[in-house]
Description:
By secondary structure, the chain is α+β, with helices and mostly antiparallel strands. It contains three helices and five strands, in the order ααβββαββ. The chain has one domain (about 1-120). A five-stranded antiparallel beta sheet has the order 3-2-1-5-4. Residues about 1-20 have low confidence and may be disordered.
Amino acid sequence: MRFILIFCSIVFTTAGFGQQGTLIDATSNCKKGEYVIMEVRMQLEDEFQTIEGNEAANLSRIAVFTGENKDNELLSKGFSGYNQVVQYLNQLENIGFVLDQTYSIKGNSLLITHYVFRKQKR
């Protein structure tokens, strides 16, 4: 019984991490002029852990939305710190996106920040 529980927990953990994609995969079909939204979602208690982050599988995540992601929008589950967010912002700029707008949404337990990018000519 113990073996079955351990095996199931490993399978579910691996399946959860297998859903994470890369920024290039998520934005590869974007054309000039199209918009992309990068969402950084943190639980409010993670708001004070921006340097070291919290990699636990909670509601915190980083995702990128293009309108046609086909299940590769999730970049990071958990929150590993704002250094990771800066890396994604720099990657978007390097592959031809320009930051258009930023806005935050604060709920009871979540802080969501949307970074709206527009694809520019390379």
